[in-house]
Amino acid sequence: MSPMTRTGLYIHVPFCSSKCNYCDFNSYAGKLHLAEKYFSAVQKEIQLYYNTMKYNLIDSIYIGGGTPSCIKHKYICEILDMCRINFNIAEDCEISIESNPGTLDIEKLTAYRSSGINRISIGLQAYRRSLLKYLGRRHSAEDFISSVELAKKAGFCNINADIIFGIPGQTFEDWTETLRVLVELGVKHISAYSLKIEEGTKFGDMLENGELIPVEDELDREMYHYAVNYFKKNGFKQYEISNFSKEGYICRHNLIYWKCADYLGLGAGAHSLLDGERFSNKCSIESYTGDLERGVKPVEERYRLEYSDRMSEYMFLGLRLNQGVNNTEFKELFKKDMFFLYKESFEELQKNKLIEIQGQNVRLTGLGLDLANQVFVKFV
Questions:
Q1: Superfamily designation of domain 5-258
Q2: pTM across the whole model
Q3: Exposure string (b/e) for 266-275, b if CB count within 10 Å is 16 or more?
Q4: Domain extents for the chain?
Q5: Dist CA 129 CA 317 (whole Å)
Q6: Tens digits of per-residue pLDDT, 295-307?
């Protein structure tokens, strides 16, 4: 009997207490009254994938959003129970949940732990109250600190914090204060993102109307470089452009995406990659639940990846990782030599000091990390 395919599982929770000014994720404020119907639909969707997933071993589950912690914990626990009934869940499965400060209490956190959740991500984004208000966040830094302490009390050791730099009005000192607080709190994983202003968000509208001036690239890069060095000095390993972890706390689910491994996405707007095919669900909560009430999978878009697409994704996603991409692995996957296939691109990027080649490995240089998009476009 052939071994099961190790696969990730993503579960999307599209509910939020309020929409942040920078957020372009599929999330909705003011729709919590739909939660019961929504999670009933997710349970139906899980059952519809029973046969598809019978030869897959789930070794990572990620409950994201939206704000999964803004809904009753019973919905989360029931979904995980349904996953265990219908899917093969690895004994050492990493099970993560996203949360926001101010939406967590000891009862909810204890229920999460009892249901098998062993990793929690708490969105700080910024420490200064004025910056939180500007971002449209509804919590304070004190709420974040309290949430971390409550999570520890409930038995969570694997705690991630999300933070943002390059926020208009954010000073370098504001940024260093945020980093210091996280290190002192003892979180094991930190995701640090440069603010991206997306169309369709409040910030996107403000930029278009001239009400928002993006941070200068020089300050953005200064903040990033400081974070890389500060985290390194404090025992964090940078394993991807934006992600840092203590030894043994690399996010397994993150690696699934960057290594182009299979994953199934459940919920409104969730994306999947299974057996060389990408597909995504309808984004609207009402459309998603309506399809499942009729016993129909709520898939909106589906396409099979060409061989060239799969190789391209392997390159530009894998180069996000500090270890880079490996030719031996590339040959095993695609029966081709990446040094021959991308010879001209590698030569140009190496000449411009954006990549370095060590044996069978290709990885970004420090300059390449700063100019990553210039590298990635070579493989699209």
A1: Aldolase class I (3.20.20.70)
A2: 0.96
A3: bbbbbbbbbe
A4: 5-258, 310-379
A5: 35
A6: 999 999 999 999 9
